[in-house]
Amino acid sequence: MARLLDHLQELGFRNQATVLAQRVAPNVDVTHPFGLAELLDSLHSLGADDQVAVLAERAAAHTDITRVTGVDRLLASMRKAGAADQGTALGERYAAFLEVLITSDSAARFVQEMERRMATAGQVDELPALGLFDHFLKHDDHGDRFRFGREPDGSPADPWSWDEL
Fold first, then answer.
1. Closest by Cα among 82, 25, 22 to 59
2. Does residue 71 have a pLDDT over 80?
């Protein structure tokens, strides 16, 4: 949706983009924080402040805070778009989640459950960003493909030996 809004603006269809923004903000799925961040950026660049506020309010209450990299991106987009109150509300939810994650005496079970949910949702590629590379290696053929590590772009590292270091 964000790309469509951006393309409409680029093509000079600003009025149509504004009408679409009014329909999207109250109805779009708000569980995926990275996609929401892109949509907030598009709404902000369109100058659709009312829609930014509506979407940011919904996102603050309902986005999936277990998607750590996406939440960080969403918080930055909220700040950039001037949705400070909504960003604060999301930040509080996120901080509570992280506190439970860090202080839980059942952190290992929590990590296993997060891994299971991410695998079920097809989000295994996000595990390394959460510091869970060893869990990432258990899925699919990742153990073999990433035997020598992982490049910053997510691709398998080239083979190496200790003599080369």
1. 25
2. yes
